[in-house]
Fold each of these.
Amino acid sequence: GGKVIVVTGTTDDSGGVTIDPSDTGFRDAAGEEVSLTSVSRILITGDPGVSARFGTGAVILKAVGGRVAATCCIGAGDKNVKVEALDGTSTYTLLMWQAD
């Protein structure tokens, strides 16, 4: 059980994008708002390569060549995820999961 937010896009290496899982702009298949109050796990994939920084800015994940990187047990504090290309621009898919 739980809730999932999936975000896809393009990012660059000069600041990237920050995704806030509590943003009410996310919708489920029925059009209902989905926001996360906590994040239990994140998965990221990117091509040619991205890094995902969680909260305080520590690099926690790097995904290169379409491979998937994942982590769990995020902990307390800022839940925002910053996605940045490793070099130039990159496409990415970020999945954030909140356990029940």
Amino acid sequence: MANQPLRHCPLCGTAAEAINIGLRDYAWVSEKLPGHVAPADVDFLLERNGRFLVLEFKPLNAPLSMGQRITLKQMVRKGFTVWMVWGDENIEVGVMDAAGDVKFVAGPLTPDELAARVARWFEQATRGEL
């Protein structure tokens, strides 16, 4: 299944044809790659002392595509911590494991509570506890 074209901005709802996103529209490279391979964007990446935290944001109850799952699973296998974050106000958080499965760990959280969890991860990485 090929990636579907973006129809509207997921944040503001503006029609995609009305937005010039330049090189962030990956069509310039996708057409040069074989098969259905397409680049992925990284929603959130934080590094501290060689440890990496990745957050992938999805609307509540939205599925993770197979391509995203494979990419994020490989990141976990390389030592990255990957959190799946669903929702905007009542946030659900899960941690991805090396098999690509996501285990629910927290929710519902507010954005401030999610920020506190990110700060806690940063502090642990700073102290070398991860």
Amino acid sequence: MLFRKRCNADGLDPKDCGGEGDCQWHSLSHELQVKGLGTFSIAQLRGKVADELEAQEPMDGFIVKDEFPSWADYCLRVRDPKYHTWGDNLILIAVCEIFCVQIRLTSISKSHDKVFTTQDGIFKAELHLGHIPEEHYYAMTPSSDPPQKVLNNNL
């Protein structure tokens, strides 16, 4: 409820793209299509991201070792849809580089919002995702209703 109120106040509608365990992937795929950057199945998008991650120096220090014993294992699980590996910041960074985009992430509070961009800071489009931590990702669309001001009920 707090998330939806926040989105409404900013003039945004969260679009649930589905994808139990793959919601970040589904939301990214939707945003890429809407922005005219291509239409990708989840398997295709995972493959592109895994290719980008595998091309990097191993980042073993950034993965949860209990879940992914090595960088190679992490990349394998990102690639294969059967694992439903949850989306994370490394995936968002890779998407920025692959598609030359900036990703704006709106969360439940402004302090949790993030912006991901290319290494050189140059991008051709902005994707906008919503995120409820540890729960779900959404594609964000401009609201057809004007933003609502939050009123102070104590006045």
